[in-house]
């Protein structure tokens, strides 16, 4: 007996919590999901300052009342700087931000998206500092009259404000095209909910109910069971009714040349029709899902002078996955024919039974072809984009998670039609560089660019010493992984501690490096000096006097950066000189005194950070002072990441301002901006027509070309 597990929907898509998190990790490391850092202004109840938060990979969990989802966002190597009620800077800080919100489907134009919309509803946000951070914060907060709970609640409110104003939403699916049309294989709309499995296996998942037509049914609240088979991370089920009534019914009718109303739903002939080939009549045709196959039963009749025949037939259609291809086969039809003959016909033609077999054969062939075309055309062409026996391709855009874009089928079950599969991602972390080399001598390699040198340079990440092993340079850090080189993904690397500085020589295996044969190797993940994640593998070859073989892939994930934000304002103006130009512009000129305020803006750098400023070629010390410049001394005030400068009246600024920053990981960044502010400021605007009266003297045409006369005439006419 056929099952019905799609809760009335045409399609039911289930994606496990583990698969959702794998997609979130990849999208986060590609810089497309959630800001990797956030500066949160603090200004509440007399507390003023700023929190610089560096985020690690967010983790989703569905252990919430549905359809709510939790998003746990760890923050690490962060900093809190307060200027009021007391000057406090605390770093490094770490902890977790937990965001709980309902998953909902929003319509944007002709698409629908499952999302966490932070701007609507009331997402719940909580912040918890880790034990080390609390140990730093508690005494400092107490001095300012605050406790740790107040600080966490204050931070939660500020994060919520930033989520609503700066982040807005977090999409859990791509934009799904929807249409209200007659095509049974295009999406009309979909619903979403979650399943919180409270059993020991904790098989939580997100569920999408998909309708392919406006008159399709479905109740997402009835989707309460996880059908994802063991060992899989996702499942797509197509309802038997949709397969028969929506896809096959119209194609069978088209093949037989009759209106679709000739068949009742799901697929049952409701009136006699001419048999294919113009011989006989098709009186019954029923298709249904029985077990794991489509069963077809039918009856046809034919008659002539002195005879009447009735044939009953049945056969099955099987859908299987073979060698990565979807294969559709029909069993040999079972045909039973009864023939009634007048006595004289019986005497004349004993071979008439063969004719009936031919008639039934034509009917069966037509029905088999129609159903095969229906399944192949309706499912394979439209849902898997392949031919009847061709390799599988992409399915159309249906909800497959944040970056799910295609399926690689691993199995198929017909009842309901289950596509057991792995999800192929539409987004991946880009590769910045990849390469390899073999060397007996020592060398250094910059994994960010692939540059190889005989000696370590400032940008080198790894250094090979034939007598010692592999070591890191500057802030690069590594961890040896138990995973294979192919299995070491960017999310996996991001979760490694990445604290070590070397791979000792005995850990690099010496192997018989033969073609087509596997061998031992050491595999490690690394964070480069520029902050990118990379994976490497290394071994030494017996055949090449223990020469080192090194291969790497470096991913182009977001990396630390340093910018300078600048704001200029005029402190004072000298007496103004006003004049009118020959082009009739009214201008005003003043000597001015400038105030420039600059702030170092680090992103993804680990706090605390040591800043060093250089103005006009001179290194600045904390506090107040002056530095010489080509136009005279410039006053400054330096406080960590913030610098303000001031000029005298009429003094220009034309030199370079630079800042370097060394973070807690010993990663150093450096950036400069050119300062160019004139000591004299001139502003002009077009003269107002009503203020001037110009009279042209026709009797002296030569004077019309003398522009100073017009300017003087304008001045006098005022």
In short:
By secondary structure, the chain is α+β, with helices and mostly antiparallel strands. It contains eight helices and 46 strands. The protein folds into five domains: 151 residues; 143 residues, 2-Layer Sandwich (Alpha-D-Glucose-1,6-Bisphosphate, Chain A, domain 4); 125 residues, no CATH class; 125 residues, Immunoglobulin-like, CATH 2.60.40; 28 residues, no CATH class.
The protein's oligomeric status is single chain
Work out the number of β strands: 46
Average the pLDDT over all residues and give the rounded result: 83
**How many separate helices?**
8
Strand content: 35-45%
Helix content: 10-25%
Report the span from N to C terminus. Answer: 101 Å
Approximate shape? elongated
Please give the domain count.
Answer: 5
Class by SSE composition:
alpha+beta
Uncertain runs: 346-356, 374-394, 690-718
From the alpha carbons, calculate the radius of gyration and give it in angstroms.
38 Å
Main beta sheet: strand number and arrangement? Answer: 7 strands, antiparallel
């Amino acid at each position: 007996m056929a099952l019905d597990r799609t809760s009335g929907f045409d399609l039911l898509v289930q994606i496990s919590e583990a698969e959702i998190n794998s997609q979130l990790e990849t999208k986060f490391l590609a810089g497309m999901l959630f800001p990797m850092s956030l500066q949160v202004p603090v200004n509440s109840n007399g507390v003023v300052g700023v929190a610089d938060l560096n985020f690690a990979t967010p983790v989703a969990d569905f252990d919430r009342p549905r359809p709510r989802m939790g998003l746990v966002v760890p923050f690490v190597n962060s900093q809190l700087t307060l200027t009021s009620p007391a000057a406090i800077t605390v770093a490094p800080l770490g902890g977790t931000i937990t965001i709980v919100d309902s998953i909902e489907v929003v319509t944007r134009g002709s698409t629908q998206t499952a999302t966490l919309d932070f701007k609507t509803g009331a997402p719940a946000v909580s912040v918890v500092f880790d034990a080390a951070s609390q140990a730093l914060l508690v005494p400092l907060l107490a001095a300012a009259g605050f406790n740790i709970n107040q600080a966490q609640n204050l931070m939660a409110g500020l994060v919520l404000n930033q989520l609503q104003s700066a982040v807005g939403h977090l999409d859990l699916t791509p934009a799904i095209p929807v249409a209200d049309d007659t095509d049974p294989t295009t999406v009309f709309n979909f619903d979403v909910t979650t399943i919180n499995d409270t059993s020991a296996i904790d098989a939580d998942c997100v569920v999408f109910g998909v309708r392919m037509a406006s008159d399709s049914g479905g109740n997402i609240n009835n989707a309460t069971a996880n059908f994802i088979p063991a060992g899989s991370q996702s499942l797509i089920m197509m309802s038997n009714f949709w397969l028969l009534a929506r896809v096959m019914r119209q194609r069978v009718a088209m093949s037989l040349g009759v209106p679709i109303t000739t068949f009742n739903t799901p697929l049952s002939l409701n009136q006699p029709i001419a048999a294919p080939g113009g011989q006989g009549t098709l009186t019954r045709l029923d298709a249904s899902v029985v077990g794991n196959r489509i069963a077809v039963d039918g009856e046809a009749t034919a008659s002539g002078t002195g005879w009447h025949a009735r044939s009953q037939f049945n056969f099955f259609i099987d859908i299987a996955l073979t060698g990565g291809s979807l294969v559709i086969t029909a069993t040999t039809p079972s045909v039973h024919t009864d023939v009634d003959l007048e006595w004289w016909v019986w005497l004349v033609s004993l071979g008439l039974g063969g004719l009936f077999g031919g008639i039934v054969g034509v009917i069966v062939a037509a029905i088999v072809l129609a159903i095969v075309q229906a399944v192949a055309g309706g499912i394979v062409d439209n849902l898997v984009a392949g031919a009847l026996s061709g390799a599988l391709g992409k399915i159309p855009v249906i909800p497959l998670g944040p970056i799910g874009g295609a399926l690689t089928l691993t199995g198929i079950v017909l009842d309901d039609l289950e596509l057991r599969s792995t999800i192929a991602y539409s987004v991946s972390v880009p590769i910045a560089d990849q390469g390899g080399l073999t060397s007996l001598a020592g060398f250094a390699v910059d994994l960010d660019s692939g540059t190889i040198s005989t000696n370590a340079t400032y940008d080198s990440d790894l250094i090979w010493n034939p007598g010692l092993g592999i070591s890191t340079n500057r802030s690069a850090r590594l961890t040896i992984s138990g995973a294979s080189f192919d299995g070491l993904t960017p999310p996996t690397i991001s979760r490694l501690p990445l604290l070590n500085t070397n791979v000792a020589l005995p850990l690099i295996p010496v192997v018989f490096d033969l073609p087509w044969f596997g061998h031992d190797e050491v595999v490690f993940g690394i964070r480069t000096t520029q902050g990118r994640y990379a994976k490497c593998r290394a071994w030494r070859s017996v055949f090449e006097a223990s020469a080192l073989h090194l291969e790497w892939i470096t991913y182009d994930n977001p990396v630390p950066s340093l910018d300078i934000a600048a704001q200029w304002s005029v402190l004072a103006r000298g007496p103004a000189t006003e004049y009118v130009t020959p082009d009739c512009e009214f201008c005003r000129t003043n000597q001015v005194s400038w105030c420039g305020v600059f702030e170092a803006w680090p992103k993804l750098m680990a706090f605390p950070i040591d800043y060093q400023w250089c103005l006009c070629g001179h290194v600045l010390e904390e506090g107040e002072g002056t530095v010489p410049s080509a136009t005279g001394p410039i006053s400054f005030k330096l406080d960590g990441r913030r610098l303000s400068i001031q000029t005298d009246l009429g003094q220009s600024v034309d030199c370079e301002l630079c800042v370097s920053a060394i973070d807690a990981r010993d990663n150093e960044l450096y950036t400069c901006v050119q300062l160019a502010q004139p000591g004299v400021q001139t502003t002009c605007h077009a003269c107002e027509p009503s203020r001037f009266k110009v009279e042209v003297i026709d009797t002296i045409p030569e004077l019309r070309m003398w522009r100073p006369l017009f300017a003087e005439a304008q001045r006098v006419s005022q």
